[in-house]
Specification:
Layout lengths: L4 E5 L2 E7 L4 E8 L2 E8 L4 H7 L3 E10 L3 E15 L15 E17 L7 H5 L13 E12 L11 H6 L3
Antiparallel strand pairs: 1-2, 2-6, 3-4, 4-5, 5-6, 6-7, 7-8
Length: 171
């Protein structure tokens, strides 16, 4: 579960990252249905001082039938830091520029139809509650959809960057 933002500006790319990479969660699979969710582990006090605080939530739901497989997810993150400020301005400060009110909400899903479902088991590959006795493959036909929403009351570019850069960014 990874989430980040990259903003293309005339002088390069601004990389905005959430603080902390660890998450804790629960997952559950029963027969053909799977459910999982996770929340971000608290970052250390030193990391929060340097990179700010990020709140996050991830949830996933899966279905694996004989011929049909479906998967959906929701991600919500709030609080980012700018990963490489020295690419744009001289930066000696150990603390990174922050975009505290920047939030990202993502959701999406996919559906696949398996043509050779008599010999290929999607449950064996993903849920591990069946055994694939022989090597087999299959053509699959699928659709997917993803949507991301991003917002910030104070703008996407941290205020520590020059105002000229904030004005030249086409957002």
């Amino acid at each position: 579960k990874i989430n980040s933002l990259e903003l293309k500006v005339p002088d390069g790319t601004i990389s905005l990252q959430p603080n902390g990479t660890g998450s804790i969660g629960l997952g559950f699979n029963y027969k053909w249905l799977g459910f999982g969710f996770s929340v971000g582990l608290p970052a250390s006090k030193e990391s929060i001082e340097q990179k700010g605080e990020t709140g996050r939530f991830d949830m996933q739901l899966s279905y694996f039938g004989k011929r049909l497989a479906a998967d959906g997810f929701i991600q919500q993150y709030k609080g980012y830091y700018m990963a490489y400020p020295s690419d744009f301005i001289p930066w000696d400060n150990p603390n990174y520029p922050l975009a505290r009110d920047l939030w990202v909400f993502s959701y999406g899903g996919s559906v696949h139809y398996i043509f050779n479902s008599d010999k290929l088991s999607m449950k064996a590959a993903y849920l591990r509650n069946q055994i694939q006795k022989r090597d087999a493959g299959s053509f699959a036909l699928g659709l997917f959809m993803y949507k991301d929403r991003v917002g910030s009351e104070q703008g996407f570019i941290p205020p520590e960057l020059p105002s000229l850069l904030r004005q030249s960014a086409d957002l």
